[in-house]
Please model this.
Amino acid sequence: MEFIRRWIEKSAYSVALGVQLEEITDDAARLRLPYADGNSNPGKALHGGCAASLAVIGAHAVARGAMGAESGPWHTAALQVNYLAAAKDEAVVAEARLLRRGKALCFAEVDVRTEDAKPIAHATVMVRGRFGAEPALPSAATGDAGESDPGPMGPFIGRVPFIGNRGIAVEHMTGGRSRLIMPYRDGNGDESGGVHEGAVLALLDTTGAMASWAETGPGRYRASTPSIQAQLLAPPPKDDLVAYGHLVQRDNEILWSEVEVAGASDGKLWARGTVIYRILT
Model:
C-alpha cells in the first residue's frame, strides 16, 4: 500500500488541504482532515469541495489498492455526493469501503463524519483503472457565448477562503449561467503531474452553485449544496481549467445546474456533472 500513501502525501492538493491517511487495509481506508480556515466557507463551515475531495481520495485509495499499482492511470468515472450536514470549526474523518472489485472498475462507498460521529456527507464512487491504456479522445466542451459579466456577486466569490486558495475566479455570472476559471497551481496538483480530481470537483461544485446565484441574484438567503453528481472522463492534465454552468430547472427552492469542466487552452472536456443547489428565503 506504500504507493497509495505516497500518492496522498505527495499530491500537492492533498497536502494543501491537510489530508492525513490514518489507516488502510485491503478493502478500507480512513482519512482525517483537521479544521483549517483555508478549507472553509464563511462561518467556518467546511466547504463542500473538501468533502467531495475526501470522497475521491478515499475511494481511490481502496480502488487502487484492490487493483494494484500497475492498474493506473485512474479516474473517477462516476460519483455522487450527498451533503447531510455542515461541519463547523472542527475536524472530519472519511471512511472508505470497497463495495466490489471488477477487472477495471471498482465501486466504493465513503462516509464523511465529524470526530463525534455526526454525518456530514455520503458518497458512492466508481473508479476506473486504465492499466496503461490511452484515454479516449476527449470531446469539445459546449462552452458558452463568451459573455463577460460577473454580476454583483462574482467579484466577491474569491474571498471565500477555500475558493480563493484554489485560485478560482468568476468570469461570467448572470441569467442562470456561470463561467469560472481555475489556474493550474501547485496547490491544485496531483502527484501524477495533472490537476487533482478533488480540485476539479471543487471547481465543478462552485460553478453549479454560481449558476444558481446567477438566476436569483444576491439577497438575504440561506443556501447550500444538497447533492452533486459528476463524471471525470479521463485523468485531468496539467492545464488551467474553465467551467461552464447552466441552470436547467428550478422550483421554489431547489435549482439544478449542468456543469462542464474543460481545458482552458484547448476546450477539451475533462469532467461534467449536475449540481443540485438549495436557496431559501
